[in-house]
Amino acid sequence: MNVEVAKQIAHSLLKIGAVKLSPTNPFTWVSGWKSPIYCDNRCTLGDVQVREQICEAFVNLIRSKYPDVEVIAGVATGAIAHGMLVAERLKLPFAYVRAERKEHGLKKVVEGANPEGKKVVVIEDLVSTGKSSASALVHLKEEQANVLGMAAIFTYEFDEARKKFEELGVDLITLSGYTALVEQALEDGYIHLRDVEALKKWRSEPDKFLK
Question: How much is the pTM?
Answer without folding.
Answer: 0.94
